[in-house]
Amino acid sequence: MSPSENERHHRFLRAFTAQEPVIRAYVRRLLPTRADADDVMQEVSVVLWDKFDSFQADGDFRSWAFGVARYEVLAWLRDKGRDKLVLDETVVTKLADESAEREPHLERQREALEACMQKVPADQRILLMQAYQPQARMQEVAEASGRTSAGFYQWLHRMRRMLMDCIRRALAQEVSS
Amino acid sequence: MKLDMEPLIHAYMDGTISHDEMARLNALLLENAEARREFAELLNMDSALAALAAGWEEEALEQAQTGRSTAPSAHRAPWLMATVCVVILMVAAGWWWQVAHRPFATVESVAGAAAFQPGASLHGELHELHAGTLSLITRRGAHVVIEAPASFRFESAQRLRISRGRLAADVPPSAKGFTVVTPSGDAIDLGTRFGVDVPAQGAAEIHVFQGEVIAKATGARQQQSLRGGDAVTMDQGSSTTRELRNAAFIQPDEVSSLKAGLAAGQRTRAEAALQQLREDPALIALMDFEAEAMPGEGVYRMVQGRWPGSRAPEFVQVGDHLKLDVGGDRSWPQLTLAAWVRIDRLGEPYQSLLHTDGWSKNNPGQVHWMITQEAVMRLALIGNTLAPGADERQGYPDSRTPVLPEQGRWMHVAVVYDSAKKSVRFYLNGRLDKETRQEIAHPARLGPAQIGNWNQRDRKLSGRVDELLILGRAMTDDEVHTLHTAGNPYR
C-alpha cells in the first residue's frame, strides 16, 4: 500500500473499529437470525471500505454507516425475503429509524449485559455461550446439555427473559442513582 | 401485550416461527410503537450475547492455536486484505469472555500491596488495592501499573474496568485494542503508552505519553483520537482537553525501586527520622499529611504518598492549593525548608512550593519558595538582594541543577537560609547543589501562606507534596543528607 493508501486505511480502521459493535447491533435488530446479520455485516464492512472516500472526514461515521447498513438490510430482505420469514419492509424502516434514535439507550443496555452475565451460574453461562457461538447447532448444544430440543429452547427463552429484566433493572437504577 | 408477543419474538429469533405467527408479529410491530421497542431491545440483547460469545470462542481458538503460524498470503486483493484486517480488529476491539481458567493477567511486581503476590493470576474477579503499587502483565503482554487506592477488574485480557485508581499502560502491538473502562468513559489503545486516572471524586482523565488512544466518553456519540502529548478529562458524556500530567503515573521501573526501598526498611527509617524532627525545638511545622483531619483549608486531592497507603495532597487543576499559617509570630534569622515532591509536569511560570500571602515591599523577609520555568529551585525573600558577582539573572537565588531528570519520581528538595551568613544553600536529593550569597539579607518572615499556589492562579504546582518541613534553624549539609537518606522511598 502507498503511504496515502495506508493513511486512508488507518483512518478507516480507527473509525470502523470503534463503531463496529454499534453497526452490528443495528443490523441485528433488523434481521431474523444472527447468521443473517453476519452475512449482511460482511457486505456492509466491504461497502463502507469501498465508499470510504465519499465519507467526509469530519462527518458522523456512525450515521453514515447506519445509512449504508440500512440500505444493505433492505436489499437483503428483498432478495432473501421470498424464501424466509422476514419482517415487512415498512416495519423494518420504522425499526431502523426508531432504534437509531434510541441507540444511546440500547448501547447502555448492551453494556449492562456483561454485569448481568456475572450473575448467571458458571455452568449455565457456558451453555449460553455455546448456544451463541457463531455457527452453533442448537440441536447439538441441546443434546450435549442433556435437554430435549423443546426443553432447551424453553430454558434459552427463560435466560433471555431473565437477562433482559436484569438489564432493565440495572439501567433503571443508573437513572435513579 | 408483552405476554402475547414475547413467544413470537423468541420463535422469530430461533428461526422456528410459522407463517401465521410471522404475520401476527408483523401486524403487531406495524401498529404498536411499544411493541417495536420491546422487539428492538430483545434483538439488541441477542446481538450483545453474540458479541460476548464471539470473544469467548476466539479465546478458545487462540488457546488451541498457540504457536501455530498464520502468515497471510501476499496475493490478496486490497479489499480482501482490508476485510481481513477489519476482522482481526473486530476481534481485538470486541468483547471477550473468560474461558477455562487461563488468567487475564499476572502480577509482575508488588510494592507494598500485601494482598498480592508476584506471579499471582488475575481472573475476572474484583480487586481492591488499598495501599501500594502493583505491576501487572496481561496475557497479551501489556504492562499495567496500578496505584492505590484502586478498585479494578479484568473483564478479559484485553479489557480492564477500573472504578477508582491510577494506572499506566505500556501496550505492545500484540495487545493492540487493550481497553480501559472507567465510569466516565473508555480508553481504547492503538499500540501505545498511556495513563488513566480515576480519582475518588471527579472525572476520569486519559493521558497519552506516546502513540495513539481513542477516548470515548460514556454516552458520547463521537470518540476522540488522542496522540502522544494529548490528555482529556471525560465528564458527563464529553471529553475536554487538559494539560498532560505524564509524570503523575508510576511506571514499571519505579515499582521495582519502590519495592526495594520497602524491603530495605526505608519506611521505618523515615518514621524514626520524622519523630526526631518533631522533637526539634526549632520546629515551625512538619506536615506529613497522615492525620485524618485535613491539614488545612484548600482545594486539592488526597492521594497516595511515598509509602503504601500513606497520604499526600496532589495539586492538579489551576487554582488547587493548600493553606497554612505558621511561624508568623516572629522573624527567623535562619530557616530550613524541605519537602518530598513529585512534579507531574513542568510549566510556566512557577510551581509553588511555599508562597507566603504577605509578599510586599512593606514586609521585608516574606518567603517565596518555588520551582521556576527553568526547572530550578528558587528561594526569594522580598527586600533581599544578590551579592555582587552572583550568576542569577532574575535577581533571586536559584539552584543550579534542573529537576528535570527527577520528573515523575519522588525527589527531595531543600533550602537552608542564613541571614547572618547571608547565604542560601540549595539541596537536591540530599546533595548540596549550590550556594548563593546575598548582599541584603532580611530575617525570614512567614505567616499565612499557600502550598501549591499563589494568588490561586499563576503559580500552580502540578504534582504531590509529601512531608513538608519548616525549621527555624539552619540545617547542616550532613543533616540534609541524612534527611534525604532516611526518607528516600527508593533503593
Automatic annotation (TrEMBL), chain A:
- Source organism of this protein record: Roseimicrobium gellanilyticum
Q: Where is the RNA polymerase sigma-70 region domain?
A: 19-82
Residue spans making up a coiled coil are: none
List GO molecular-function terms, semicolon-separated. Answer: sigma factor activity
Residue spans crossing the bilayer: none
Q: Which GO terms describe its biological process?
A: DNA-templated transcription initiation
Tell me which NCBIfam families the record gives: Sig-70_gvs1, sigma70-ECF
Could you list this entry's UniProt keywords, alphabetically sorted: Sigma factor, Transcription, Transcription regulation
User: Short name of one Pfam family for this protein?
Assistant: Sigma70_r2
Matching entries from InterPro entries are given as: RNA_pol_sigma-70-like, RNA_pol_sigma-70_dom, RNA_pol_sigma70_ECF_RHOBA, RNA_pol_sigma70_r2, RNA_pol_sigma_r2, RNA_pol_sigma_r3/r4-like, WH-like_DNA-bd_sf
Q: Which family does it belong to?
A: Belongs to the sigma-70 factor family. ECF subfamily.
Q: What is this protein called?
A: RNA polymerase sigma-70 factor (ECF subfamily)
From TrEMBL, chain B:
Keyword Hydrolase assigned: no
Write the protein's name: FecR family protein
Q: Which UniProt keywords apply?
A: Disulfide bond, Membrane, Signal, Transmembrane, Transmembrane helix
Q: Which domain of life is it from?
A: Bacteria
- Molecular function terms from GO: sigma factor antagonist activity
Q: Where is the LamG-like jellyroll fold domain?
A: 333-478
Residue ranges crossing the lipid bilayer per the database entry: 77-97
What SUPFAM superfamilies has UniProt attached to this entry?
A: Concanavalin A-like lectins/glucanases (SSF49899)
PANTHER family in alphabetical order: PERIPLASMIC SIGNAL SENSOR AND SIGMA FACTOR ACTIVATOR FECR-RELATED, PROTEIN FECR
The answer on whether this UniProt entry bears the keyword Transmembrane helix reads yes
Q: Which organism is it from?
A: Roseimicrobium gellanilyticum
InterPro entries to which the protein is assigned, alphabetical? ConA-like_dom_sf (IPR013320), FecR (IPR006860), Ferrdict_sens_TM (IPR012373), LamG-like (IPR006558)
